[in-house]
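Quick board copy: two proteins, each given as sequence then tokens.
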Amino acid sequence: MLSGLYVTVLSVTIETHILLWERTIQMIFPRMTWSKLIAVLPTVLMSVLNTLGWMFCFISLIGVVDFSVPKSAAATVLHTADAANAIVVQSRRTIRDQQRQSWQVIAFKSVRPDMQDLPLTLRVVGFPGGPALAHPEPGQLIDLQHRVWPLPDRSAQVAVDPALSFSLGQYDLAAVLGHLPTAQRLQLQLPTADAANPIVLPIPPALIHEWQTVAAVAASDLVNQCDLFPMEARQNPKFPLWTGCRLAEP
């Protein structure tokens, strides 16, 4: 909308000055004399400078105002330490379902140099008051062509208060991640007690790329990459020493 407004203003301004130039030329050429040329020259120069000033302002606005289509929020991959001397690499987003209920969608894995990387896992956590997820039913990702990628339920791996477990689901994402399209929006469907009304969450392409980034991280990628970790975490004496980022105790 802003770009259309600026184009309209520039167009009207240029048309106005063209009309002024035409009138000036009509005054000059029918009976051109040096005296008349000298008389109208300041007007012509001011008109030209005025138009150039408008064009300069317009070009400056193009440089300042972003006319592009708004992008999703910048992707963020987080790195935290756990109690097993490992680093948990995770992607975390808040996404609303078809009923405008908010869910935390977290893709994560643990890495440690002396063990094989654990597979990428998808955890979905509902906020209080949201619908209950059904277990152990699988979730599924669906593309625009109605292709389906099932996500086996791994919620039994999560040790939580049984009273809270109905608003939490954990699913195996590793097996399907390499097969997902990355140029279109997907739907994440999660089963509920009402089988006819699953939770439906939109998954943008940028989030698929973010999941792939998390899946590709190896322990060697984290060694001496201290900017990835908060200062207070590095001050913890239990922070993984293999990263090369633990701060010496004072």
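And the next:
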Amino acid sequence: MLIDLHTHTGYSYDAAPDMPQKHVDAAVQRGIHVLAFTEHVDFFRRESLSAADFPAGTVDFDGYAREIAPFRRGRMILPDLSAQQHDLAVCREQAGDSILLRAGAEFGQPHAAPELANQLLDQYSFDFVIGSIHQMPDDMDLYFYRYETVDQSSFLHTYFDEMEAMLQFGRFHILGHIDYPLRVMKLPHNQPSLRGYMERVDCILRKIIAQGIALECNTKGLLGWQQAVGPEDCVLRRYRELGGEYITVGSDSHAPETIGYGISQALDRLRAFGFSYVTDFENGQAIQHRL
């Protein structure tokens, strides 16, 4: 069974403008059995940022001002969830039995504005929510740091601190791309990895197992410098050793052309590590599909 539980449509600020139906058509064409839309909902500690908030040369503030700031509304980036869920209902009716469609969302650092996150979670019905870290405590997106100026070890420890704070907030079902910083920390002289941070990773894995939160196997790394499905072998192996059973797969697609990309490889990898099931969610309840 092919399942893609992490995709973005034109309702997400950083995705191609195509609306959900085009994504559904692409998924059906590629033999996807279960597809979820997980639009970006990001939360911030402050109402806004300025270049003066950062030491000179440490961030690409022009990039942030161009690609993030225009979509912020105070302490949130919030898509039109009402319209998106209406479109999803129409897609479900038109798709019939050809595909299962899930109503998801990707909440970025909900602990940064817990009152706003809780309000949305009480207002809308989701099959599941992905919890992810996209911004650091200074509200800057990970894509806009100048990593040649950053102490990468300290940076990763701060990232894991944020992830633990998000786990304390709870109210999500899937831990999104635990290795997210690796996408952007690559420099000519380094090979960023979580292998040197397994004590932090171990703590997070134990917590998600205790809380019934699934680990995500995200395939977007196939399109980046890593050329691999994430997370790294050391993370997946440890999750298995600790008894982790809930594990999802997602392409992190931002356009119809990449719906389902790498999902078959991700499922093969789970089998190779001894997992027997891949996880899906409906109305907040985990469903285990045999691999």
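Board note added afterward: The two ends are 7 Å apart (CA to CA).
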